[in-house]
Amino acid sequence: MQKRKYLIPIFLMLISIGVLVGMKVNTAASGDDLFNNVKKFNEALTLVQKNYVDDVNTEMLTEAAIKGMLMQLDPHSTYITQDQLKRINEDFQGSFEGIGVEFDIVNDTITIVTPISGGPSEALGIIAGDKIVKIDGVNSVGMSREDVPKKLRGPKGTKVTVSISRGGNPNLIDFEITRDKIPLYSVDASFMINNEVGYARVTRFSATTYDEFSKSLAELKKQGMKKLVLDLRNNPGGYLDQAFKMASMFIDRGKKIVYTKSRISAFNDEYVSEGGEYTNMPLIVLVNDGSASASEIVSGAIQDWDRGLIVGENTFGKGLVQRQYDLSDGSAMRVTTSRYYTPSGRLIQKPYEGGEYKKMLMNPEEGDNLYHTKDTKDTSRPEFKTMGGRTVLGGGGITPDFVITLDTLTNYSVQLRRVNLFLEYANAYYDANRENLKSNYSDYLKFRDNFQVTQNMLDDFKMLAASKNIEFNEEQWSRDLDFITTSIKSIIARDIWGNNGSMAVWLETDKQFQKAMTLFPEAEKLAQLK
Question: Which residues are catalytic, by number?
């Protein structure tokens, strides 16, 4: 027994020595003394904890150290707290639990932008423009945007009572809402532009995007779709597998869609198209500087295979692959493990420096120059060839085949947006004219083609702006008049028909979309579809 008493600590000591030796060998092989650096951090944290003048929150310091460490790597290696991780998972898993509304804050009041289709709020008759003034009997006017979800979201089956102020009704309306699982749609608009052209807007690549997109295209095909405009503008990306599946729908089986490269061979991957039923459909993809990551994978593959035309503005240039590693306390780290490349070998990632993306000199003038991929202001960017032999630029992001830059808003319109004036005015107009609008316009296409924002409406809008102390500027008003009238009209359409109505109106004055509609003959020729 006495002998065993001494053997146990000796055995543990030998294990510890073995672990330390193993760490030494491993760090020596990597060329970095990991063990000593961990020891150094532990010493520093212990010294602070023991000697700092006030009580120390070592958890907070450790999180700060992790964040600081990742900031030294690249812009996309990040630390995620438990709360942040929950919200991120909800966004990309395609659902959350709550009452099912999109909201905004107008004049310090929670204003319903739209009830989410299929959610409990829609089922109870809550409509766009409704204002939530009480939650469970407690005044909610003045509540911050960040606090609203904390009150309205909750486990499926729980209840919350909201008191709503609705235009035309002098009394508050109480709704007892049973929270439920709420779908978050990534295909937020899809409809027929005319008898042949379908339109689909994808706002992110979540776990449900491919299924949503497939369903939308199948419905459009039933309605006669022979050509498609795919709108990926302001789509920040998401799941790689969803982007791969989407691209496969348009690219012949066996063709490479994207590949990744890393210093670690296990992280080198290649994604080859599985083929789909739309490989012979004329296609145009809209992108801008808010299109990133998975959006660039789809548009880059379509461009490299000459499968369709890319129209709009240069994309963001986010081509770093992150893997998520869960930590013991429920938080997580996302660490960049590899880089994305398009089929022609272009690196999607833009250069970055000091944690921020380097500003690229990419400001081509709008013109009628098809297949414009050469930026004369930056001759340093490497050139690549598409599978059909066209020249495309590397060096980060996807440069469209046809570049269309949108006009910059004047300061007057910026101020109108800042105080949510378009939403406030359009909701008030809808409340006052609800029945006439619904009886005069049976669908959003008739509304798009026939409804006019009148001079009286514009005069009322100016008066509302003046009441918010926004100084009128005639020159800026005239310059932005199309934007102002379209904004008002599109929000009224959204109040009645949701996002399809809103986008059908908005596209009528969208220069990038309008140009895209003229390019289908070129897209067909490029893809050799005729």
Answer: 293, 304, 318
